[in-house]
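Feature request, filed as a ticket because there's no other form

It would be nice if the structure record came with a short human-readable summary line next to the tokens. Right now we just get the raw output. Example of a typical job, pasted below so the devs can see what we mean:
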Amino acid sequence: MAVTLDAPISWIAAVDEDAQMLGGLQPNILKSHTREFFTILFLKFNVRDDGMSFLRELATDGINPALMKSAMDHLLEVETFKQEGTPGTPYVGVGISARGYDLLGVPKQRQPADVSFQKGMTHNETVAALGDPDVDTWDGHFRQEIHAAIMVGDQLAPPHNAALARIKQMIAERPTISLLGQQKGNGLRNKNGDGIEHFGYVDGRSQPLFLIEDIESETLNSDGTTNWNPRFGLSRVIVPDPCAPDSSIHFGSYFVFRKLEQDVKAFKKKEAELARALDLSAVDAERAGAMLVGRFEDGTPLTTQSAEGNHNPVPNDFTYNSDPDGGKCPYFAHIRKMNPRGSGGFEAEESERLHIMARRGQTYGVRTDDPNDGKVENKPSEGVGLLFMAFNSSIGEQFEFVQMNWANNGGFPSVPPGRLDPGPDLVIGHGARPQIDCPVHWGANFEEHASHRQVDAVAQTVTMRGGEYFFAPSLPFLRTLGD
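Raw output as currently delivered:
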């Protein structure tokens, strides 16, 4: 037998190689770990032995319980919480950069081989291809050589703080390890209790599902899986760990981290400007922002409704089959560009699915306003944003493909003859922003001149502040470092 990679698996029924894989895999990869309170530390190892001993101690049982747990441990904790209400333990994750593997003395032929990973996010070719700002403009610690990222998260502040303090003490005991920087994150929610990003829109709803139990829950407890298929094989998120004692059962994942600052005030002003340009007023004005994102703030998909209100639960079982011309949800809408959901037919859908990634983002920054008060002038212009985090089996085929060929590509998705190209993603895309073609009313027929209007595109309100590519190795690799 071998680890099941071409289909979702049941963690409850996992045996043999599947069970061993789950026992050696880090959490938060196959299933998101609750982390309302979150901190990520960026480290540089100046001495090989101290770097190895630090990583080994994180993952190995000692006098105290190991800080890191496995994916299987995490899933068992989730089930125990459901049955008994007993809280789980904090999430501690490790990502190692290509330069980190070099410092640890791992030969190139045994390192994770992804070409993009080996180059790193600061490489000139990568920066140019992604359209990112010059590295010299990034936050200070991202301009340095980062060897490892340590993630700490929990639903509650006290256990998060205790785990973080213990890790920082371990760093302090090794003066040759430099803490280059840290970034705190915290959950942000709307009045319905759904997680949102700083522009106010429900975030993270559409995710690939790798566990049969999660698929069953989506089918029975949400709006179903009839129209959009969330089932993905594990090969879309994990790869054999080449450094592990047994790479046939020990797996890891390529981890992409990007700090994205959001100018909330500017975005909200642009929403209002778009509404005025389309003569949308009163309740209908909310549709202007929904056209930029593809969902209303409460998560209602624009392609299924002309107004918000379908949020219990937030829907995900939809496609754009009923909206081929973009008269409901425009082609330029963020979620339509980032997940076209088979807009070009079955073959297109199967091809698109190769690029979907497991996103595990977290908002950062302290808000002094009420994000849900509907005001504009009190909104922050800086200091808040999204810690974009995603797990991939191929950085080039997933994250980089999506950023370059979907988000930044002004010609994607393709539109009918005579229509304006969508332009780049108006939320996270880079590049020139030509005019956009907007439906004046929901369900507009673009053959009728009065039903649509060409207006200036929304200026960029998201700025990339830095990031790096890492590999989240298996626990057995970390536990045997230096052996």
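Something like this underneath would help us a lot:
The longest helix spans residues 157-172.
Residues 16-187+205-254+467-479 form one domain.
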